Amino acid sequence: MPRGLLIVVSGPSGVGKNTVISNLFSYSPNLKYSISATTRSPRQGEIDGLNYFFLSDSEFTKRIAAGDFLEWAKVYQHYYGTPRSYVEEMLTGGFDLVLDIDVQGAALIKKALPEAILVFLAPPSLNELKLRLMGRKTEMESEIMLRLQNIDKELHAVPEYDYFIVNREINLTCRQIEGIIQSERMKVSRQAPDFLDKIFQDE
Domains in the chain: how many in total? Predict the structure, then answer.
């Protein structure tokens, strides 16, 4: 069974990552969501074990010491991490896995798994991004300003990514990411050494 693809999606808060990923599953049936662990409190509608693994600070630090995370970081006063065993289980099972993570985490993922495909989502404009953040009503104004100030650092990380997409329209963005997945799957490096078997399998 061919190993699955790991698609890492990053971008500023409010750019629409969650919405894009939620809609992407209808374009790519083989795709699964990589569940991350975090110490932040659940937002309205979020479910433990489905959206995130919600952990206490002490539990999270214990798992760090045990090497249970593929990557971890402290972002906006909270810990976030990617469970190593879950990612490997999905990829070896042949499933494509999409991971929503910040630029710091994406760099660590790429270092640990060079096969990872990094996709950066950008907003059409900074003004529209601010409007989206304010419209979510999940952060205080001071938190929104902090996130906007962080954009410069995030944009400086773009050259380390494989793909750059401006998220103007959800369905278009999903089709573009699906195109990336299909192109990556057809790479010779991902099909070798059994590509000749595919050609002559009917003979």
Answer: 1
